[in-house]
Amino acid sequence: MRVLISGASIAGPVLAYWLNRYGFAVTVVERSPSLRKSGGHAVDLFRPAMEISEKMGVLSRIEELDAGMDWMTVRREGARQPVRVDLGKLFRAASDRHIEIMRDDLSEVYYDATRDNVEYLFGDSIATLDPDSGAVTFEHSPPSEFDLVVGADGLHSHVRQLVFEPQPCAFLGGYFAVVAVPRELGVAGEYLAHLGPRRMVGLYVARHLTDARAVFLLRSELELAYHHRDIPTRKRLLREAFTGMHPEVDRWLDALDTSAVFYFDSISQLRMDTWSRGRVTLVGDAGYCPGPVVGGSTSLAVLGAYTLAGELAEAGGDPRRAFPSYQRAMAKPVQRSRAFALGTARAMPPSARLGVWALTQAGWLVTALPTSISAPLARLNTRGVRMHDSFEVREYATPVR
Question: CA dihedral defined by 29, 226, 39, 246, rounded to 10 degrees?
Fold first, then answer.
């Protein structure tokens, strides 16, 4: 069976890997002219995604690309003394198996695991798509027909726009931005963070990057007016929100004019009743983004891609059987990720100074407590900090061809 996947970031290559293992003929189309290598931002992989990566034989390479963040220094607005937080303890409390890796590095690892057996069409995209027949026309390539088409093209999915009724995202009350800044402004292996009411910014240096990344979080009850491709307006909004927070933050903002990496988007949640129609389905952020930054969307995308491939294999490629099974299997992880994201979005960053103080004290407490105490306490909270580790990675019995 021929499967077309739109999107070569995270979910697309993972899905392509497993479908190829199950004997499907896979084509991946990607709008970008090549694999993105700007560095992106750091993402978290929790136990389920780590187990799936291990099954794919790429875990050792992922571990080599660990961003290497060990400590965080937090400066509260108005406070003289910073707070030091042991990130190793914090992550061990949240997950038994965890790694932080640059998004583009992770995408390249999954791409390299598939490029010899999967056809990639870079610099192209789907123009029209018939969900009933699988007929596809492309912007540049000749038209073709596929047995199945999967949208793995992110929160602003083009496949979703072509096939499904308009699905407005639920705004969670915040914005997230990433900017590349000179490496010398950061400290290797450490986050430098500034925290105040309704805004937070941190800077980190991954081991192997030639620059550093500044990450901005902003709370806002009202949605800001801009188009998601309008870079000048987004940069202006970021400056207005964070200028004057601290002289160090102002220096980071100076890099906006020359930064090779810039990302700015709302923290929004996609809520669809169904992710499938005819021969078309969605995976990862394209179908059930819980919210960038706040919901563990990268790990959820890896789990969703693995699950979709397994259900398709067990159903012999029949979408009438596989797609409902896929949605049932992912219903609980998606629902719990949405709930977790809502809670995180309400708390990060805090809206009042008391909340800012409480958050820094919580980080200090985790650092002060022995791991033998903090980790067992955290394991009791499978709907909070341990939520991501609680998802099951099912073993699919279909023989690999």
Answer: -170
